[in-house]
Write a structure and sequence with these properties.
The protein is built from 17 helices and 13 strands. By secondary structure, it is α+β, with helices and mostly antiparallel strands. It has one domain: Amidase signature (AS) domain (Amidase signature (AS) enzymes). The strands form three sheets. Strands 6-8-7-12-13-11-9-10 form an eight-stranded mixed beta sheet, sandwiched between helices.
């Protein structure tokens, strides 16, 4: 392995290919070497399709990321050449008959996809510990801790330097939670900015959206530019941006009115390290010319979380029922994990009217949040209420689905911020601006009004320039002996 690979983001690696300093084959070799070195510890990369990647290379990939190794989340992003377990024994080795629109757009960048990254079953966890992968996915900063979820494998793979960027998705923080846990940049776009088709119109009543885990803001901007826009037949679309994401990061934003919330959205205290991260970010933003004012939305966040929990239970039950109906045999108890069984059982208690009431609740919550953002440009919080949890904290073994989500030690107590913006549809980002005394990353969370993705990207780029994080590498990289030379 050659250490220079890790000194470049995806845009930088593409520049090496364009200049002839490296070939796509060289870069794929480096990614595969890193899988071999780090995957036994991290358990992050699955379903490797090296022959497919070599075939992509042989065709001469074209585009802004031509030749850069890339990984898809093992949930969604359907692609004919990349079978998926979807985080579940029930769906193991699923083959697809056609590509998703999001995969086709990723492929059009010239990125060389060679496999998938782990996800919890159904994508409903803040940790990635699915039984189908034979064990938990671990954090490169400390393998005793989770890399987050549900895009936990993507977070671990990017943080470990296996790839510079990876696909993820976010229905309740599933890009931003791993970004916070793994010291990465994670951006959730405005609802409907990215395509869901052709096999779906929306995910989780519009709360779920694809996204990316990256080490740089510019890589995220490039990928969002490449993938943004409705696909054919989309049921609705996001507001048009005033400029592209890449254009937005070339200049600082105007002075912004930023609401500072150093508690949860319901006023509960958060871990001192997370609060310190928020206060330090507020000081930094103030020094950059922005106006900081303590404030938090007076929206019904607890009610939104209960509605979110019902919608996701119904979505989980539907996907399992469709799989069972397609094969014609009943669902075996051990084919799905405890939390999934609990979600199916809870969904069975909900009527169609209950489901529509839950959708109505998240729509009402979005209007409440929009009212708050009529007064403020940005809301600043922590991404999580605590540093990355220990492996096993959010095991899927329990069948107490409601307790798992809403209990005092549940996911919403641990992650009380992210799902708010899936419900409201607003853009939000997690930035790696703080590390604990124990060396664990702590993300800072920024949210903007619907459609202001370009403004939020501009602010994120300004913070990246003021407090760079790219040079920070986890111990799994620092302790790896690298002997060979760059090409």
């Amino acid at each position: 392995m050659w250490p220079e690979y890790e000194n470049f983001d995806a845009t930088g690696l593409a520049g090496l290919v364009a200049s002839g300093a490296a070939s796509p084959g060289d870069l794929l070799d480096q990614a595969l070497l890193r899988v071999a070195a780090h995957n036994p510890t991290l358990n992050a990369v699955v379903n490797i399709q090296e022959a497919v990647a070599r075939r992509i290379i042989s065709r001469g990939p074209q585009g802004p990321l031509a030749g850069v190794p890339f990984l898809l989340k093992d949930l969604g992003c359907e692609a004919v050449d990349f079978p998926s377990h979807n985080g579940s024994r029930l769906f193991a080795n699923t083959q697809y008959r056609r590509n998703s629109a999001i995969y086709d757009r990723i492929a059009a960048t010239g990125a060389v996809t060679f496999g998938r990254t782990t996800s919890p079953e159904g994508g409903i966890g803040a940790a990635t510990e699915a039984a189908v992968y034979g064990g938990p996915t671990r954090n490169p900063w400390n393998p005793d801790h989770t890399s987050g979820g549900s895009s936990g494998g993507a977070g671990a793979a990017v943080a470990a330097g296996i790839v510079p960027a990876a696909h993820g998705s976010d229905g309740g923080g599933s890009v931003r939670i791993p970004a916070s846990s793994c010291g990465l940049f994670g951006f959730k776009a405005t609802r409907a900015s990215l395509p869901d088709g052709p096999d779906a119109g929306e995910g989780w009543a519009g709360m779920s959206i694809d996204g990316f885990l990256t080490r740089s803001v510019r890589d995220a901007a490039l990928l969002h530019d490449a993938c943004t826009g409705p696909d054919i037949g989309a049921p609705y679309r996001a507001p048009a941006l005033l400029e592209t994401h890449l254009q937005a990061i070339t200049h600082p934003p105007p002075p912004l009115r930023i609401a500072l919330c150093d508690t949860t959205l319901t006023g509960q205290p958060i871990h001192p390290e997370c609060r310190a991260a928020v206060l330090a970010a507020a000081s930094l933003l103030q020094g950059l010319g922005h106006h900081i004012e303590p404030a938090r939305p007076q929206a019904d966040t607890n009610g939104m979380m209960r509605a979110w929990t019902g919608i996701v239970a119904c979505g989980t039950a539907l996907s399992m029922q469709q799989a069972v109906a397609a094969r014609g045999t009943p669902l075996g108890r051990e084919e799905v994990e405890g939390v999934t069984r609990g979600a199916i059982a809870y969904a069975a208690t909900l009527s169609g009217a209950d489901y529509l009431a839950a959708v109505g609740k998240i729509h009402a919550y979005g209007r409440e949040m929009a009212g708050f953002f009529a007064e403020y440009d940005i809301l600043l919080t922590a991404t999580l209420a605590e540093p990355p949890a220990k492996v096993g904290w959010f095991s899927h073994a329990t069948e107490d689905y409601l307790g798992y989500r809403l209990g005092p030690d549940g996911i919403f107590a641990y992650s009380p911020f992210c799902a708010a913006f899936n419900a409201s549809g607003q853009p939000a980002a997690s930035l790696p601006l703080h590390w604990t005394v124990a060396g664990l990353p702590v993300g800072v969370h920024l949210a903007a009004r619907c459609g202001a993705d370009d403004l939020l990207f501009s602010l994120c780029a300004q913070l990246e320039a003021a407090a760079p994080w790219f040079h920070r590498r986890p111990p799994v990289i620092a302790t790896q002996t690298i002997k060979s030379k760059a090409p």
